[in-house]
Design goal:
The chain is an all-beta fold and 109 residues long. It is 0% helix and 61% strand. Strands 1, 2, 3, 4, 5, 6, 7 and 8 form an eight-stranded antiparallel β-sheet that branches. The chain has one domain: Jelly Rolls, CATH 2.60.120.10. InterPro entries: Bacilysin_H2HPP_isomerase, Cupin_2, KdgF, RmlC-like_jellyroll, RmlC_Cupin_sf.
Length: 109
Amino acid sequence: MPSPFFSAAELLLVPMGPGVQRQVLAQGPDLMLVRVTFEQDAVGALHEHPHQQISYVESGKFEYTIAGEKRLLGSGDSCLVSGNTLHGVRCLVAGVLIDTFTPRRDDFL
């Protein structure tokens, strides 16, 4: 059985696009926790995936779009993205999103 602990010193930062990096914080077959850092004006392009996702704004300001609806989110705000729903984000003030996915996103490993 793999260890249930994840050491910050061993977690990789992976570029996702200009001004965006992700770091898988913890994961198992049914659940994944990811930290995504954004520079100001960076964009998480519109996309969809079969995973259900919850995003929590740790810091910064984001314009989040889910199924065509736009909302400004700041520190402490969160949102739910159902599977196979078009969504994306634009960073207005540099910050961090904490994303959870179920099941795990194997494409992030």
